[in-house]
Every structure is written in structure tokens, then in C-alpha cells.
Amino acid sequence: MLQKWITSIGLDIGTSTTKLIVSKLLIANQQNQFTLPGCQIIDRRVTYASSIYTTPMLNDVEIDVQRLTVLLEQEYKNAGISLDQVEAGAVIITGETARKQNAESIVHYLAEHAGDFVVATAGADLEGILAAKGSGAIQRSAETNAVIANIDVGGGTANIALCQNGKVIETFTLHVGGRLIRLNSDGFVTYISSYLTEFLKNNSLILREGEKATFEKLSSICQLLAEETVNYVKALNQNSTLLVSPHTRSSIHPETIMVSGGVGAMMEKQKPKTVKEVAIHGDVGPLLAYHFQSIQVSQAAETTRATVIGAGMQNTEVSGSTVYIGSKRLPLKNIPIIEIPVQQEETWNQQLFQERVRAACMQASTLFSAEDPPAAIALSHFPYCSYKMLQELAKVISTEFIACFKGAKCLVVLCEQDIAKALGQALAKQRRELEIICLDQIDFTHGDYIDLGLPVAGEAISVSVKTLAFSS
After folding, report:
1. Interior CA angle at 458 toward 419 and 418, to 5°?
2. Alpha-carbon distance values, 311 to 101, 131, 438, 459 (Å)
3. Which of 55-69, 299-313, 405-419, 439-453 has the lowest mean pLDDT?
4. Which CA distances in Å does 6 have to 11, 25, 42, 363, 416?
5. In terms of pLDDT, which residue wins out, 288 or 60?
6. Per residue in 2-23, pLDDT tens?
7. Which residues have C-beta within 8 Å of that of residue 304, sequence separation ≥ 6?
8. Could you please report the per-residue DSSP string of 35-61?
9. DSSP H or E segment with residue 100
10. Which superkingdom heads the taxonomic lineage of this protein's source (predicted)?
């Protein structure tokens, strides 16, 4: 059994804090006489965790990229690793920070300066998924068969993921966080997020910047925020003015609710009794944590570092080992995925499949940039495939891809089943001028992006499928 350890990092730049972890992932190429070869990550270990830093800002809307870069360089030195040793992981900008005006440029800049293969991503849904992985909620749902909700509460947002049978089944995000209201040590309000205005008004609570807040008023606000969050998670409310983006709440009721994030970490502390105790960090985080604790939700096993652990340890997977790689371009980052069903009918119909491929490629050509490869074609609803059908698939895909993306020299195809090597060989014969990368055992969703790493065990490569979403 071929095994290899690779180095992965996770860097989380949040509303309040920035932290980094380094982990080792053990990848094994497992095969025997009864099964197809397959690669999987069989062990994950955190080898270094940085201090938790206050996110450096130039002003209220700009992240200080220079200070972030210096911080990252110093932490790499502290961890005893160099850029060329990093093979996987994620740089994520989360919460309110993802709305800062230079977030998109920074996340790509950091990705380029973090190592050969590091995911650059931001987005509330992905943050919720990563936090659920890092907090232990996904694993607990797999072990108990129960629906587990993880609420990751940071400085600006509460990212929620509902987990069942080891998978995330629903995500949503609320404007609930410790730094949405900021105070000085005397209790004067220095900042109130505009996202709270309507919510406070609807609950007959008025708080203004510059006024001295009473403990009673702050406690009422934090209690309402905690209750609003938990009631929406329990599906007791079907709507909320605090939703970050429109969401239709399903009727799924979680059996267990756990809280991670910076606010989750403070749940074990004693209730603050004065405004000065509330404002110890310059915000209402300690009081918000108390009110989550008082409505009997549990503290997650991992709290403050849940998201960064999810990013660094759990975001990377490996492809199948029966792959076809006819290109020297790896690693490749941020390739948009276009999903195309192979067979929606009872039997294989080449003409209808060709119409679907043409429509999908034409739409992709209007949505995405002209980078090469312009998009990854992901084949779903893939039935048993005969040799004749395989050749027809290859001909349709290569023909429509070239017709739509005339300047492209590289074609990436993703499959759910173990057919990538055969399909890749068929595609290569169809278009010898095209570089072909064909991967199998990939779990994808239309509209996601994929990063392809270097080979890590035999022919298998490291893969990260993620969402790139920058809020305006």
C-alpha cells in the first residue's frame, strides 16, 4: 500500500481574528485483487497552531494585506515550514471581512503567496461547512445518525450547517456576532452594524452610536439575538430579518445544537455582570456567549479554531487513482464546474446529450473568463457505459468544447465513477491537440469551483471543491 504524508495549511481571516494551522495528511493508495485501486486520506494531524491575532485593518473597509503577509511569513517560520512544502489547504476570508472592499484581491494574493496548492475562497456557506467539519459536528452526525446543527458564531456572522449521516444537508447564515456592537471600557457605543437596525427596531430596542449603554439593554439585545438564531435553526421561525442572503428554511429539526467560533469559546466562562465586564474585548461577545449558553445549546468540542481546522485538515480530498492526466499544467486553481447529465432519458441518446453539452458550454463561455482551462465539465447521472457509448461521449464532449472555447488548449473532465482513465484516453484520441485531464470519484455541485493539485499517491491528485462567493 503506497502511502505519503503531505503538508496542508489553513488560514482563516475573520471579522475579529486571524489564525493559521499546519497539518499533515496521510494519503494511501489502497488496492487488492477484489477492488479497483482507490486513494483516500486515512489520517489527519494538526502539527502547528498559531496564536490568534486581531485581523489587521487599514480602516473600517480595508484589510491590511502587507501586515497579513508579514504575519503569514512569520507563522510559516514559527511552524518550521517553507512555501514549497505546502501542498494543500485553504486561505479563507470569512464573515464581515469578506465584505471589505479589497477582500477578493487579498484572498487571491494570499493564495499565490501561501504555497503551490492552496485554495483561495470566501463565502458564508462554505465557512459553515468548514466549521461543521472542524467542530466535530459532521463526524458526530455520522456516528449517531442524528441531525446535528453547528452554529459558528464569530465577530460578524453566525454560520449554520445542519449535518446528517456525515454530510451537510443545509446551510444558512445570520448577521449575529460579537462585534456587531462595539463598546469602549466606559460602556459608550462606538459602532453598531447596519444589519441590526431593522431587527432592533422591530423589537422596540433602540441603541445609538455615542450613547452609554446599560447592562440591561445590552443583555436584552444579546438574548434576542441568541433566541432568534436558535429558533431559526430549530425551524420554529420560517424567516428572519437577520439572514445574510434569502433562504427558505426546511422543516428539518436538529436533535442537537452545538456552538463553535469565538463566541462559542466564551460559553464556558461566567456570566458578565457589568458593562465593563461585557466590554472586555471591546464588543458584546461575552454577553452573547452567555445567552447562547442559557438556552441550553452545547459548546462544540472545537470552538475558536473550528473553521481553520476545517479549512486546513478537512477541505482536501483525493481523486480516484484510475485517472488520466495528459497535461503538465498542474497545479490548477479556481476552475468553474459545469455539471452536465449524461443520461436523463431511459436509454442513452447521443443527440440529446450533445444538446445539453452545447447549451452548458455556451452558457459557461458567457459567465467565465477566457482562462485556460475555461471550465471543468462534470458528468453526472452516468449509467453503465459500453465501449461504443464511451467513444460517442468523447466525440461529443471534445467537439462541443472546441467549438465553444476556440482558444482552449486544456480540457478538464470530472466523473463520479471509475471511468476517468478510459474516457481520458478516448478524449485524447479524438483531439490530439488538446491536453486532457480526466478525474474520477469527484463529488461536485454545479456552480462550484475546483482546485487540482500535484500527484500525491501514484496517479491520484489532491482535489478541493469549493465555493467562491464574495459579498458586495
Report:
1. 15
2. 23, 8, 25, 24
3. 299-313
4. 17, 5, 12, 37, 24
5. 288
6. 677 888 888 888 777 888 888 8
7. 17, 19, 52, 260, 261, 262, 264, 265
8. S--EEEEEEEEEEEEPPPEEPPBSSSS
9. none
10. Bacteria
pTM reported for the whole predicted model: 0.68
For residues 208 and 192, what is the distance between their CA atoms, to the nearest angstrom? 7
Give residues with Cβ within 8 angstroms of 103, minimum separation 6. 63, 93, 97, 122, 470
Cell of 138: 459532521
Q: How many Cα atoms are found within 13 Å in the side-chain-facing hemisphere of 9?
A: 30
Decide if pLDDT at 199 tops 60.
yes
Q: Is 345 helix (H, G, I), strand (E, B) or coil?
A: coil
CA distance readout (Å), 420 to 93, 408, 428? 34, 20, 12
Look at the block and give the residue holding cell 463526524.
139
DSSP letters spanning 397-429: HHHHHHHH-TT--EEEEEESSS-HHHHHHHHHH
∠ CA 106-132-439 to the nearest 5 degrees? 70
Closest CA to 379 of 429, 419, 352: 419
pLDDT tens digits, 403-424: 998 888 999 999 877 788 899 9
For residues 296 and 163, which has the higher predicted lDDT (pLDDT)?
A: 163
Which residue ranges form the domains of the chain, and what is each CATH number?
A: 3-122 (3.30.420.40), 137-301 (3.30.420), 321-440 (no CATH)
Q: Which residues contact 280 (CB under 8 A, 6 or more apart)?
A: 272, 286
Q: Could you give the CA distance from residue 192 to residue 49 in angstroms, rounded to a whole number?
A: 32
Residue 92 · residue 311 · CB < 8 Å: yes
Residue-wise pLDDT tens digits, 275-319: 999 999 999 999 999 999 999 799 988 776 666 665 554 455 555
